[in-house]
Structures are given as structure tokens and as C-alpha cells.
Amino acid sequence: MSPTQGPVVAAGAVCWRVRSDEVQVLLIHREHHRDVSFPKGKVDPGESVPEAAVREIEEETGYRVSLGAPLAAAEYVLPNGRDKIVHYWVAEVSAKELTRAGSFAPNDEVAALEWVSVADAGRMLTYERDVAILEQFGERAAAGLHDTFALIALRHAKTVPGGDWHGPDATRPLLPVGRSQARHVATSIAAYGPRKIVSSTAARCLATVEPLSDRTRVGVTSTADISQDAYEQGRSDVKGIVRKRLAKAKSAVLCSHGPVLPDIIARIARDTSDDPSRFDLRRAAMLSTGDFAVMHIAGSALVAVETHSSGVPA
């Protein structure tokens, strides 16, 4: 492999449904590879890894999904000697989506789709690396931890520095690079299917979630309870906002500020985990502008935490 040539990066998911009280997973049969595997594909230039996972699943199967909790990545060497990394998530195919997508039509990538039990999938998969991914999913399914919702903590994008702004701090606008960060991060966060967007009342937070709102067609609820001004003045209600979102058990975005985000992350973790030290909460709490952390929760149990960059250097 050329020293300047990095690994091939791909993304996919273990897609699941429930049929007759049994969890089934979706396998794809690829005629040109003569194998059975999970839906996945390479990340396109300029595309985020979560965005690629959702796109590839729809292209190969016809199903539109939102990402659940991440699974381990599969790493291996291609026949040409280049490394490949495939990032996997869990993704439910809802009954509504099964109906909407209709019948599958074979295409250049996939010859057939097949829904099977976890046990049958283990016998059918061609590659041991896929079996390892399946085993992780199976352990979660057996424990009831495969069906999750996400609380997504988003730090506002890059804004005009306070020293260069002569109005109130809460009115500081995004810089051009911040607007670019907001557009890019919207495509990544949309892959998790948020159903609620909650933002600080600060202009920089509201501008950050505007592209996400446009993309997902989810309105924005603004509140001072997670604003920096209220937090520094002791008037915020991070605890109340977090507990309300946990009680709703629907995927939601909380867009806030550097000083407030560690408290948001810590309160989610305290309410969902007996041992928060199992998760990389420090990275999740110390987000740079435009970055976000996804905390995946099943019932009242924290299953996984992942962090992502906007992909646009500040």
C-alpha cells in the first residue's frame, strides 16, 4: 500500500425487524462476489461515515433507515493489499418502512435480500468478520439493548469572537466557516433520525441547527434552559431538559455551548448508567465547535456513546 494512501472506509448496518416475536436480521446476497453479507458500501468524497451508511442501505436494499447504536468496525486487507475499515451500526427497519419500500428488485450490487433469525444468519454469513459483528448484535438483542433512541449533544458552529462583536453575547452570528460546519453536520446528524431539535436561545445555536431543521423537516424549540447566559447566571435547567428528553424516549438534538455541554453529557450518563466510566464521556463533553456526541439509550440504559466532527476545520 502506498504510504500516502489511507484505508478504504466503508459503512453499513445490521438491519433488523421483529416478525412473530422473533428478531430477524437482513442479509444481502451478492452474485458478483458470491457471498452473503450485510448491506454496506464505501464512503464517497465529502460524505460523512453515518451519512454513507444510510445512503448505502437505501441503495442496496430500498429501505430508508435511521442509525441506532454503533457496533464494532470490521478491519481487513483487500486483495490489492490496501486496508479497509467498515463501520457498522444497528438499524431498525420499521413495519411502516417495510410496507413503503415494497418488493425488492435485484440490481447490479445485490442479487437478493433475505430476512433470517440471528442463529441462521450466523450459519449463512460468508466472512468471519461479519459473524463477529452479528454476535455483538445478538448479545444486545438477547439483553433487549438493540432498540435504542439517541440524545445528540451538538456544540454550536464557529462564531464571531466575542472581542470582535459589540452587541450582546447571545447575538453573536456564525462565521462563514461556521455556516459551512452547520451545513455539513446536518447531513451527519440527519442519519440518526432526530424527531426533536432543542436549541439554546443564542443566535449561534439557532443558526447551527437551521440546516438540520430544513433537512429533517423537524422544527426547532428554543429554550434558555441550556443557554450559556442562563447557565453562567445559575438560571438554567439542564437537569429538567435532559430528564424530559429521556422520558419522551425519542431521538433528539440538544444544541448548546462549550461550558454547558459537559453538564448535559454528565446528566444523561448519570440517569442512564450505573458505571459511566465504561464510556468515553470526556471526549463527548469536550466538543469543538460544530462537533456532536451521540448517546444511544435502550429504555433507561446507556448502550453506546460516539462522537463526530463536522468535517470542516474551524
Structure, explained:
- The chain contains ten helices and 13 strands.
- It has helices at 49-61, 95-101, 118-124, 128-142, 176-190, 203-216, 228-232, 238-248, 261-272, 281-285, and strands at residues 8-19, 22-30, 35-37, 40-42, 74-77, 83-92, 112-117, 149-155, 196-200, 220-223, 252-256, 292-298, 301-308.
- 33% of the residues lie in helices and 26% in strands.
- It is an alpha/beta fold and 314 residues long.
- The strands form two sheets. Strands 1, 2, 3, 4, 5, 6 and 7 form a seven-stranded mixed beta sheet that branches. Strands 10-9-11-8-12-13 form a six-stranded mixed beta sheet, sandwiched between helices.
- The protein folds into two domains: 8-142, Nucleoside Triphosphate Pyrophosphohydrolase, CATH 3.90.79.10; 149-308, Rossmann fold, CATH 3.40.50.1240.
- Strand 2 and strand 3 form a beta hairpin.
Brief sketch in words of this structure:
The protein is built from 10 helices and 13 strands. With 314 residues, it is α/β, with parallel strands linked by helices. The strands form 2 sheets. Strands 1, 2, 3, 4, 5, 6 and 7 form a 7-stranded mixed beta sheet that branches. Strands 10-9-11-8-12-13 form a 6-stranded mixed beta sheet, sandwiched between helices.
